[in-house]
Amino acid sequence: MDTLREFNTVNDYNLFNNNETKHPLISVVDLSKADPRSGSRMYFGFYTVFLKDVICGDLVYGRATYDYQDGTLVFIGPGQVAGVNSNGETYQPKGYALIFHPDLLHGSDLGRHMATDYTFFNYQSNEALHLSERERTIVLDCFAKIDYELEHGIDKHSKKLILSTLELFLNYCDRFYDRQFITRENVHQGILARFENLLNDYFASEELQISGMPTVGYCAEKLFLSPNYFGDLIKKETGRTAQDYIQSKLINAAKESLSDGSKTVSQIAYALGFKYPQHFARLFKKHVGATPMEFRAANDGNIGLN
Length: 306
Description:
GO terms for molecular function: DNA-binding transcription factor activity; sequence-specific DNA binding. InterPro entries: Homeodomain-like_sf, HTH_AraC, HTH_AraC-typ_CS, Tscrpt_reg_AraC-type_HTH. The protein is α+β, with helices and mostly antiparallel strands and 306 residues long. The protein folds into 2 domains: 4-183, Sandwich (Jelly Rolls); 186-300, Orthogonal Bundle (Arc Repressor Mutant, subunit A). It contains 12 helices and 12 strands. It has helices at residues 10-16, 109-117, 133-152, 158-183, 185-204, 207-211, 216-222, 227-238, 242-260, 265-271, 277-288, 292-300; strands at residues 4-7, 26-30, 37-38, 41-44, 47-52, 58-61, 64-65, 72-76, 80-85, 90-91, 96-100, 129-130. It has a 5-stranded mixed sheet. A 5-stranded antiparallel sheet has the order 2-11-5-8-12. The chain has a two-stranded antiparallel sheet with strand order 3-10. The termini are far apart.
């Protein structure tokens, strides 16, 4: 597992797996053609999607093992390192990998919204996509359509058809992740409860005054999730972004302090981790529709600002 293999081009990975390179920027790799090998870490300079038919060792990202089983899709973005830990034993890879270089997307609609629409390429451990048999059939159909175009040979239609099929595949994956967020609701409810407890403990400690409002990245790390997966989960479960959820907790704490009346607005701002009271006032007005002073005055007068 200590060996690091680098794959910077589609051809590099095709050669490693005994597959023909039909297009320099995209390939559907049949992993069963590869020679038996032992586990290693791998650097990918392109987008990679694994569909494994069987478990061949433990798929590893960083120091964590993927939540991984038969019929699971794993997404790896360019510049990431993943690998297989086979405990020193030789294994025969099986399944498929769809790989495509970022250069394929240049100038396309897909390229323009790749980073924002398909955040699952930045998910990490325990965040793989578990497919039903029907979903697996759809994935393999998309792979087959892409491979058909690659077999057909490059002509004036090739890029448009390949990109449209690739986008169709990614849109299906987005839908399948939505389904997974729902079917794993019990797991996710546990995460939401842990997130709420994490925020409660953070706001009750001195950490808020010392370090300021917790970031989405901080919360994700404490919950052992990638920031992207965590953010998508919170958005799908609550309808709000994780940052908005955190800010709402802070605003509620601010309202309590303002209603108490024992501290000035500046003292409240500093206690909530703001270096400058005007930044606190700006955020408060954005969420509440009134400045802290206006809220306090209305509260004192029982006008009922929320």
